[in-house]
Write a structure and sequence with these properties.
single chain; 246 residues; alpha/beta; seven-stranded mixed beta sheet; 7 strands; disordered N terminus
């Protein structure tokens, strides 16, 4: 898929920094989401030799994987160079065992760029795949399945669609509260109303193509993943995935 203007906004330094310093740090129950991701990984993958962080951003998920499996080698892929620069900085102490790839996985050619690390014991992705149209999401899940070892695990920590507009508004209320709290804790002076306007009219919103977690889980089952479930859900924040059969 050729990048359109909605997606290219994530290649800018300004949006990258605003997201990493603001939104990502303010996400409700962020630590619990990662702890649960690692718990599931331990159950499915007692050892991890190779893993992939797909749409890695600043490498927060892959960093957590490395802290649990410090001898693992990892591939970190993102199409945003500012994001990859942030990941390289975060992961400097693991540099010798990592590969960083600048690539848009909206283009099926991305698979060839990570073959040097395949097959993977574990593939993780965080708040990234929802930028792809639904047919491309399904194709990516098939590509992920094909890159996993038998017995390998895929976990997607993702922004998913609400079931109704009413539920969507409850999520937005939660996010504005979380963003405002984070803003105040860091010495900010904006009102909650100002933070709300920033959230509702954020420049990256048009790049979101959300799908229900139940629908995406059905796609995984149809591909052949087992133990598919939504392991965590807080309104539009969900951790879901499955295992390639051994």
């Amino acid at each position: 898929m050729t990048l359109d203007s909605d997606h290219r906004i994530w290649q800018t330094e300004t949006l990258t920094r605003n997201y990493l310093d603001g939104v990502r740090r303010a996400l409700p129950l962020a630590a619990e989401q990662i702890d649960l991701m690692l718990r599931i990984a331990r159950a499915a993958c007692p050892t991890v030799e190779r893993f992939l962080d797909l749409g890695c951003g600043d490498g927060i998920l892959g960093h957590a994987v490395l802290e649990q499996y410090p001898q693992a080698s990892g591939v970190f892929l993102d199409f945003s160079e500012p994001m990859l620069e942030a990941a390289q900085k975060r992961l400097a102490s693991f540099k010798a065992q990592l590969t960083f790839v600048v690539q848009d996985y909206g283009d099926p050619d991305w698979v060839g760029r990570v073959q040097m690390g395949a097959p993977f014991d574990l593939i993780v992705s965080g708040f990234s795949i929802h930028h792809q149209p639904d047919p491309r999401k399904q194709a990516i899940y098939q590509e992920v399945y094909d890159l996993l070892k038998p017995g390998g695990l895929f976990l997607n920590l993702e922004h998913v669609a609400s079931s109704t507009k009413w539920v969507e508004h409850r999520f937005d209320d939660l996010m504005v509260d979380a963003l405002y709290s984070h803003h105040m804790q860091n010495g900010g002076e904006k009102s909650r109303e100002e933070i709300g306007r920033i959230h509702y009219y954020r420049p990256d919103k048009a790049a979101n193509i959300l799908a229900p977690v139940q629908v995406q889980s059905d796609w995984l089952r149809a591909i052949g993943f087992t133990h598919v479930d939504c392991y965590f859900k807080l309104f539009e924040l969900a951790l879901f995935g499955g295992v390639r059969p051994g």
